[in-house]
Write a structure and sequence with these properties.
Keywords: Membrane, Transmembrane, Transmembrane helix. By secondary structure, this protein is mainly α. The chain contains four helices and no strands. It is elongated.
Length: 90
């Protein structure tokens, strides 16, 4: 969306882009922290054995495969829109 405004205004909004990227990173970390804390608290509540707890926490942790797919798809859509809009407005 920001690319559309850059092309329309014929002016770079790189500072805005950096601000949005930083905000998204902070928000993403906050969401992941809440999810991880909820999962860990749930495991700690249900299981008393430290080995079982450790194993379950390791199984639940890590990167989401769907998150990776979503990120790649969003990058591809953004690149397509940038090329498409540049072709239309040129």
């Amino acid at each position: 969306m920001l690319v559309f405004f850059e092309l329309l205004l014929d002016h770079s909004l790189r500072g805005v882009s950096i601000g949005i990227a930083i905000s998204n990173g902070i928000l993403g970390n906050k969401i992941y922290y809440r999810k991880a804390k909820k999962e860990i608290d749930h495991i700690l509540l249900l299981h008393g054995d430290p080995e079982i707890r450790r194993t379950l926490i390791q199984q639940k942790g890590g990167t989401s495969g769907w998150g990776i797919v979503y990120g790649i798809v969003m990058i591809l859509i953004g690149a397509f829109l940038q090329v498409f809009l540049a072709a239309i407005l040129s």
